[in-house]
Design goal:
Layout lengths: L5 H47 L4 H4 L7 E7 L6 H9 L6 E8 L5 H9 L1 E3 L13 E7 L7 E6 L4 H11 L4 E4 L4 E3 L3 H11 L4 E11 L4 E3 L2 E4 L6 H23 L11 E4 H6 L10 H15 L4 E13 L5 H21 L10 H35 L4 H29 L6 H36 L51
Helix pairs in contact: 1-7, 1-12, 7-12, 7-13, 9-10, 10-11, 10-13, 11-13, 12-13
Length: about 525
């Protein structure tokens, strides 16, 4: 009779299961990224060809252009608030207003706005369609050049509460929701509103756009005049991350009408539908994703034949953290916000009633956005354990790690190449070389840190019950570039008043034609 070593057989089975899950999951992730990348490239090139024949002057001069309210919540933003408001006031669009909400800032944000734009309190009856913290004052400028600027001063209630207060004050049919630390391209609104004007078969309820990194770019009077790669390595890592996320991720999901997230840094929403949904949720810290999912779910349940769009153009530039501690708090918050949203709307999971978002988008986010870092961290721990116990082939392990590293670097290089043949923002070879070098280091340094932040974010959500937003210190845009120039907005007293006679800018700063 043959005797079997039951214990060893069980260990072998567990190892084979681990191999199957780990390698199968990794290959599936790689293939999904590749498919999304191919779809994004096709859609970006199609957009550029179609956009070549678009005359945005028709929209700019049209009295039928929909009215838009730009909602900009601000909390302790004195480092960048003047530059950013200049950017908002310089947007080229025939019918818009800028609503800045000072959400109980403890710094000089409101004081700087009052001084710069000659603001004074006005009698304004706030229509509380959505309940918010108390509004103290509503300000408007004495200078007619800024008659479309409204500043709301309210008690602190968080970003969602500030956005809801702006909704109550707004008069536009659509809202452009941004972070106040962002710089907008002059033709941003024209391009974001174009999908609403073009869509005739379905109800366009929202559209998003590409966000890029503004660190170390040269900014004058609220405008990006020279695009530079960030000097800090950490910001370079995030530049690559944003390129992959927007250029080879959200462009694809937008074309598939499967977007679950329109970034809080840049998104246009149909205001009436936002109000019908109850506005922004004050109980979540991932208000941008939660609103997008809730609007899509509401539209489906009400029988609205809707669509959510996405514009591949780089329309918005934002400052990213340059310290590991600030970045850790940001990514921890992003993780907790995503978990909150996914759990709040778990009814969507594999529910055919909700169409693509139920059968494709939600499961993808669940498996590859939420669970991916947890699975990766668990796999790394097991790999180390199996290696120490000698139950894993070390040579095969090294080959597997080399495969993942090579794929990651190749995907990053491909992203930079696609950026060059489409929107061509980084025109200097040495800047691209710096990004390539950062791409070689990123999988070894930045990616493990992001995984760590995701794991701790899950821990804080499930075991600590953490709800805090976390402080996000701004460095500001007035910093020296690598050539010793200052990035400024013209200094005190030099105001960038809107000039309706100014020529319409070309498509951003892109000069290389699509091939």
């Amino acid at each position: 009779m043959i005797e079997y070593d039951t214990q060893n057989s069980l260990v072998d089975i567990l190892i084979y299961i681990f191999y199957f899950i780990t390698y199968g999951y990794t290959v599936f992730v790689m293939i999904s990224y590749l498919i999304l990348g191919v779809i994004s490239v096709v859609q970006a090139r199609k957009y550029l060809r179609r956009n070549t024949y678009t005359d945005y002057l028709n929209i700019l001069q049209s009295p039928e252009a929909p009215s838009v309210s730009i909602l900009a919540p601000a909390y302790n933003e004195e480092a960048t608030i003047i530059e950013n408001i200049r950017s908002l006031l310089s947007v080229r669009y025939p019918n818009y207003e800028v609503i800045v909400v000072n959400d109980g800032s403890r710094d000089r944000s409101l004081t700087k706005l009052i001084e710069e734009y000659q603001l004074e309190p006005v009698n304004f009856a706030v229509n509380y369609k959505i309940e918010t913290k108390k509004v103290k004052n509503v300000y408007k400028s004495k200078d007619p050049a800024y008659n479309n600027l409204v500043v709301v001063d309210k008690e602190n209630g968080g970003k969602s509460d500030a956005l809801n207060a702006a909704l109550n004050v707004s008069t536009g049919d659509y809202t452009l929701n941004i972070d106040v630390d962002c710089i907008l391209e002059e033709d941003c609104l024209l391009k974001l509103m174009k999908p609403f004007l073009e869509e005739t078969d379905k109800n366009m309820i929202a559209t998003g756009g590409v966000v890029r990194i503004a660190n170390n770019c040269r900014i004058e009077k609220g405008r990006i005049v020279e695009v530079n790669v960030p000097n800090k390595l950490l910001a370079q890592f995030q530049t690559l991350e944003y390129l992959r996320s927007f250029l080879l991720g959200r462009v694809a999901w937008g074309s598939l009408d499967g977007l679950l997230l329109i970034s809080g840094a840049l998104g246009v929403f149909q205001k009436q539908l936002v109000i019908q949904c109850g506005g922004y949720d004050n109980e979540t810290i991932g208000e941008d994703m939660e609103l997008t999912v809730r609007m899509r779910r509401y539209a489906r349940e009400k029988g609205i034949d809707y669509v959510v769009g996405f514009v591949p153009d780089p329309l918005c530039w934002t400052e990213v953290p340059e310290s590991w501690s600030v970045l850790r708090r940001q990514r921890n918050r992003w993780t907790r916000g995503a978990v909150e949203t996914l759990l709040s709307h778990k009814r969507l999971f594999l529910n055919p009633f909700y169409g693509k978002i139920g059968m494709v988008s939600y499961p993808y986010w669940l498996l590859f956005e939420w669970l991916a870092p947890l699975i990766e961290a668990f796999g790394i721990v097991l790999l180390i354990l199996f290696s120490l116990l000698g139950v894993i082939n070390i040579s095969f392990l090294y080959l597997f790690i080399a495969l993942i590293y090579g794929y990651t670097v190749a995907f990053t290089i491909a992203t930079l190449y696609i950026e060059e043949i489409t929107f061509f923002q980084y025109k200097k070879r040495r800047q691209l070389l710096r990004l390539v070098i950062a791409g070689l280091i990123e999988p070894l340094m930045f990616h493990p840190f992001v995984v760590y932040c995701a794991v701790t974010g899950n821990w804080d959500y499930f075991f600590e019950g953490k709800k805090a937003w976390g402080s996000m210190k701004r460095v500001g845009f007035s910093r020296p570039t690598d050539r010793g120039k200052r990035i400024t907005g013209g200094g005190k007293g030099k105001k960038n008043k809107p000039n309706p006679a100014a020529p319409l800018p070309s498509n951003n700063v892109r000069t290389r034609p699509a091939t």
